[in-house]
Every structure is written in C-alpha cells, then in structure tokens.
Amino acid sequence: MKTNQPFVPISHNSRLTLPTAPNPYIPADARILQIRDLGNDIRLFDLRFTDSQLAESFTFRPGQFVELGIIGVGEGPFSLPSSPTRQGFFQLGIRRVGVLTDYLFEHLSEGDTVGIRGPLGNGFPVRQFEGGDVLVVSGGLGMVPLRGLMQYLIDQRHLFNKIVLVYGSRSPDHVLFREELESMSRRGDADIVLTVDDAAGQPWNGKTGFVTDLLAQVDIDPSTSHAVACGPPIFYKFVLEKLVDQGYGKDRIFLSLERRMECGVGKCGHCGVGYTFTCLHGPVFSYWDALNLPELIHS
Ligand SMILES: Cc1cc2nc3c(=O)[nH]c(=O)nc-3n(C[C@H](O)[C@H](O)[C@H](O)COP(=O)(O)OP(=O)(O)OC[C@H]3O[C@@H](n4cnc5c(N)ncnc54)[C@H](O)[C@@H]3O)c2cc1C
Ligand code: FES
Questions:
Q1: What CATH code is assigned to 28-120?
Q2: Beta carbon of 146 within 6 Å of any ligand 1 atom
C-alpha cells in the first residue's frame, strides 16, 4: 500500500457490497454471547453472527470498524478490539455516552441480538509492517482498536520483529485490558509500557507520566519501524510531533481518527473532510495524509 499517494476519488455510482449483506445498508443479526464490565462505563461485548456461515467466514483488518444498530433506537460506528486471527466471533468495546449506548447498556443482555454492518473502513496496513519493528502508542479509549492490532501482531509473532506498546491512561482504574497486556509482557511477546497520569494512591507498578515522556526510552530503531497511534485529539498533537522528532517517517506513522458517521459507506457525506470520507478512506490515515488535510486532526 502506497501511503503518500492521493486518495482515490469516490464514485457515487460504485456499488459496495459487504460481507454482512449484498445491500450495504442492511445489517446482519449478531447475538451477544457475553458482556464484561471494563469499568468507567465501558463494556466489552462478545458477538457472533446468527448465520453460522457468516459467523465462520467474517474477517476484517485490525483498525476497521462496524456499524451496530438497534431498530427504533439508532446506529453507530464501533471499532473492533478483537483480531481476525480469532474467528467465529468478534468483540466491541463500548463506552456509554448517549442514546444508542445507553439503550445497549440498559436493555440488552447476553442472548439478545443487534444488527451489524461491516467491516467498514480501511484498517491498519498490517502487511506493510511485516519484517520490521512496530511501535503502538495508545491513549485512553484508543486502546480499543489497538487491542485488536496487538492481538493480531502477537498471534502472528513470527511475521514481525520487535513489538512495543506504550499506553497512557488517566489512572490505574482506567487501564483497559490490563491483565491481558501484562501477560503479553510476562510471556515476552511484546514490550509493554503502561503509564498513568496519576496513580492516585492506587497500587501501581507501571510508570507515571505522559506517553510522550516515555517514547524516548523505547529501544527501537525509528528509521526501520512503523508507528501506530490512537487516542484523543490532544494526544495526537503531542505524540505525532514527538514521533517525527525521533525519526519516524511521516509515511510510516499511522493514526486512527473518529468522525461523526451515518452511512459508513461513503454515501451520505457526514464524515467528509476535504476530498475524503473518513468512513471510506479512513479511519486510518498516515501522518503524511493527515498533514495534507490538516482538518483531519484539528477540526
Ligand atoms: C470509526 C469510529 C470508531 C469508533 N469506535 C468506538 C469504540 O470502539 N467504542 C466506543 O465506545 N465508541 C466508538 N466510537 C464512537 C461511537 O460511535 C459513539 O460514541 C456512539 O455512536 C454514540 O452513540 P450514542 O447514540 O450513544 O450517543 P449520542 O446520543 O449520539 O451522543 C452522545 C454524546 O457523544 C458524542 N458523540 C457521538 N458520536 C461521537 C463520535 N463519533 N465522536 C465523538 N463524540 C461523539 C456526542 O457529541 C454527544 O456528546 C467510534 C466512532 C467512530 C467514528
Ligand atoms: S458516514 Fe456517510 S459518507 Fe461517511
């Protein structure tokens, strides 16, 4: 994948079909197998398509997302925190913020079904990472899509050289997937650096301080590595500059962005930025692309 090429213009007449249905607006039913509380109004949902053929064949690229809909309530885009290397089911890590997510938390339980369309968006260019080092930098809820990427890299450990995760959270309570990440670190699958803004008197054996302060300590050669970043807008402002200062090429830094979306398939224009639609050309962009379209990060 050439990342410094202009975006491919969209043909509004082009027909898009999704694995979930030939008509991209029609969702497929998926059953909620399990719901786990991750704290701070975030839950992890395990889902499986009710159509067993779709359930077994459904695949995606880390960094892609799906539209989850509930009839009469609404629909919203959610990243996939699971990996396509683990088939038969998929997961969504959802924070409760409004109408749809409130309904999901209040009225749906294990055994209920929801509508799913996808996978959508481009995802991380993981094939490009093969043979080299990968630095994954995460802030807050950005760990949701990056957890899927980490599982993907670890499940195919032989394809990658060094894998490093630097993940910053507000406090120890806010660290998502903590046990899983600590066990990756114990097994030696990846170098995992967890840091919090403030340990707030809680038991904590990780680091304290901002992600940007720790990047200089990472033992990785930026000139031959790829970096992936996902976090809140303020996080990008500092992390991206730091990565460039350290020698990562702008076309080797990838970020995942959130925009308000409706259709998810490049038709409604809700997620348009300049000449791109985030749902179709993103949500993953190289830093190079983002610099050519500054509204991507700053609007
Ligand atoms: C590509 C993509 C991936 C996403 N992945 C995840 C994920 O993995 N987990 C997750 O919890 N959320 C994710 N989101 C955000 C999620 O789509 C929204 O939080 C959800 O649709 C809100 O629906 P609601 O009806 O509950 O909230 P609403 O009632 O619509 O809104 C409640 C509040 O949330 C804000 N809000 C709604 N949508 C967004 C948005 N896209 N970005 C910023 N603020 C928003 C509104 O401004 C409002 O303040 C993702 C968004 C995108 C575009
Ligand atoms: S959400 Fe409709 S064009 Fe992107």
A1: 2.40.30.10
A2: no
